[in-house]
Amino acid sequence: MHSDDYALILAFFALVLLPAPWLGRFYYKVMEGQRTWLSPLLGPLERGCYRIAGVDAHSEQSWQRYTCALLAFNLAGFVLLFAVLLLQGNLPLNPQHLPGQEWSLAFNTAVSFVTNTNWQAYSGETSLSYLSQMVGLTVQNFVSAATGLSVLVALCRGISRRSTSTLGNFWVDMTRATLYGLLPLCVVLALVLVWQGVPQTFSDYVQATTLQGVDQVIPLGPAASQIAIKQLGTNGGGFFGVNSAHPFENPTALSNLFELASIILIPVALVFTFGHYVKDLRQSRAIIACMLALFLIGGGTSLWAESQPNPALNAATVEQTAPLEGKESRFGTTASVLWSVTTTAASNGSVNAMHDSLNPLSGLVAMVNMMLGEVIFGGVGAGLYGMLLNVLIAVFLAGLMIGRTPEYLGKKLQAREVQWLVATLLVMPLGVLVLGAVAASLPGPAGAVSNPGAHGFSQLLYAYTSASANNGSAFAGFGANTTFHNLMLGLGMLIGRFGYILPVLALAGSLALKRRAASGLDSFPTHGPLFVALLTVTILLVGGLTFLPTLALGPIAEHLSLGF
Predict the structure, then answer these.
(1) How far apart are CA 110 and CA 104, in angstroms?
(2) 235 near 145, Cβ under 8 Å?
(3) How would DSSP label each residue in 349-371?
(4) Cα separation, 189 vs 221, whole angstroms
(5) Between the CA of residue 44 and those of 39, 55, 99, 186, 433, what are the distances in Å?
(6) Coil, helix or strand for 482?
């Protein structure tokens, strides 16, 4: 590593960690309807939305009504996007006259963007019109992220409130999350990207002739606006097929840095939002410490692995050097590795290099980041409520060890809450192990892998892990665009999204009904180093017991076969 690499890492953490406390307090004030510096500008628009939709902003909902509103909204979004993709050929803003998507691919794409996964079994510039990209995908990028933020806020209220049956109003939370939480930041980032050279235009594709005299089509489009929300909303779906490895999506080192930092900016800020809800920022610092520890473990492992020469490639050379195959040559190996770790830790799914070319240990880190279930930083809202589920599991285990009823911030965890926690532990195994096993055991679907042996199995395992974790990244070379995989991966995305959301809202409703007892001398503190260590071990232990045998057949076996 050179000095530029260390500067990139320091700049990345500075851009994320320095504004996070301020942004976290801002989100708390926004979601609780308090006045902010944006209220004079966006307040009239917010109230206008309520009037048009007939929403009473002062009326709150029980967790059941909150859940029904969320499901209805997401179902309507799926139907609209599915229709747009199917009928694309007959809709405007289609200068290339692209036809509608095949039905199973349209189903997969619609589910993907509604669930904040952004898995793409197609190449955007050759498959989607400008209307599909804007009205379809970009809109869902906003509202899927806002859905995750709304669920988190409902859980925060359930933990912090006392003896209440309501968690807020989904329609109000969704509106505030979109207007105040996502839109202003996206406008700023989009302008920065346009400044750096990302296109934002409705012009037709450009016909050009290369220096070799070959005709080439240069795709354009309203890319900057979608790229801004794909990063800030932890969506990840690219406007162009190769995502942020495309020079129009990520033209410069500065755009690379800002896009990279924006992936986890909001997830980190929301940890501080939680601290404001429970009136104890020590809880936020403990959770941030655990997230950073897991991130640094994975990042350090990947950086070390990618700095090692490949024995198969360098056996006959005198000077042993780390391979650059699949890396982003404009920015270097460190930038590629930092992006791969960040995007899989944050359920973002965007890439600036090809994960299929990663060292087996780096591929292992990317898969483990996702298998842990969006807990390191995760998606907007989804990352923190996933982490809070693990916090409650750790508290339960601590209660068993010390022989007293487990409680978190004065709320006792009893049989009902533990049942919901256990339900969430089944989500990732069902999506990854069960659906993945079905795909691997059938000769037709298994033919989607392009490599034999352990690496081929890693391609399939990565795909079903990415879908179930609502991540959306993939090992290049996996032929996902078949009817079977479109439907099965779509099912995995639905399980990975709503398999967490429904128990989380039920858990929030159950906790909200409880009285909040004062902490005593015998209470287990959840803000010190001991709890951070317990939480970290709990996450790794649950993930290891669930997925280690499967990982041994893929990236671990591949690493050992290379002779490192």
Answers:
(1) 10
(2) yes
(3) ---SS-GGGS-HHHHHHHHHHHH
(4) 17
(5) 8, 15, 40, 20, 49
(6) coil
Please tell me the distance from the alpha carbon of residue 327 to that of residue 310, in angstroms, as a whole number: 14
How far apart CA 501 and CA 498 sit, in angstroms, is 5
pLDDT of residue 452: 81
CB 230 within 8 A of CB 118: yes
Domain ranges within the chain, ordered by starting residue: 19-312+322-561
289 and 387 in contact (C-beta within 8 Å)? no
Q: What are the tokens at 386?
A: 């996933």
CA distance 345 to 362: 13
- pLDDT value for 417: 93
Give the integer Cα–Cα distance in Å for 217 and 142. Answer: 30
- pTM, whole model, 2 decimals? 0.94
What three-state secondary structure class fits 218?
Answer: strand
Do 117 and 100 meet the contact criterion of CB atoms below 8 Å apart? no
β partners of residue 200: 222
SS3 (DSSP) at 527: coil
Helix (H) or strand (E) holding 500: helix 483-512
Question: From CA 487, how far away is CA 492, in angstroms rounded?
Answer: 9
How far is it, in rounded angstroms, from Cα 230 to Cα 161? 33
Region for 364 from its dihedrals, namely left if φ exceeds 0, alpha if ψ lies in -120 to 50, beta otherwise: alpha
H and E: helices and strands count for the chain? 25, 4
Tens of pLDDT, residues 443-500: 888 888 888 889 899 999 999 999 999 999 988 778 888 999 999 999 999 999 999 9
How many residues can be counted in the chain? 564
Residue 122 phi, psi (nearest 5): -155, 170
CB 238 within 8 A of CB 223: no
Predicted pLDDT of residue 318: 44
User: Tokens 């750790």 identify what position?
Assistant: 394
Query: DSSP letter at 208?
Result: E
For 408, the enclosing helix (H) or strand (E) is: strand 407-408
**Short-list 519, 480, 528, CA closest to 105:** 480
Confidence at 186, pLDDT banded by 50, 70, 90: very high
Find tokens 């990244």 and name the residue: 473
